[in-house]
Amino acid sequence: MMFVCTDSEPDTDPTELPDVEKWVTDNDARGRRITGDRLAPVSAATTVRVRNGELLTTEGPFAETTEVIVGFDLLECADLDEAIEVARAHSMAREGRLELRPLMIVSD
């Protein structure tokens, strides 16, 4: 899973950013991107917790932060090295940050 996040310190390199639509098209064509999308703004978030049996809901994200998850892509890569190369070509590698995390497959 690749989480697409904002970052308070984006890259300052003046060269043109990679085209994210081309990134999507290329990775879809190669079968590496299974699905992905943008998320609604954090103002639409609801945080859900249960404490001492009581349901607690809060409007907005779970923490006060300027760096938030704004999207995701589910990738199919042979290994972490391939996933890093795929992420490196995404425009948010420069404008924000990308968090790569393997899925934990839980068998029955």
Automatic annotation (TrEMBL):
The record's annotation in InterPro entries points to: Dimeric_a/b-barrel, YCII
The YCII-related domain is annotated at: 12-103
Superkingdom, natural source: Bacteria
Q: Which PANTHER family match?
A: BLL7171 PROTEIN, BLL7171 PROTEIN-RELATED
So what family is this one in? Belongs to the YciI family.
The entry's protein name is YciI family protein
The organism is Micromonospora profundi
- Recite the lineage of the species: Bacteria, Bacillati, Actinomycetota, Actinomycetes, Micromonosporales
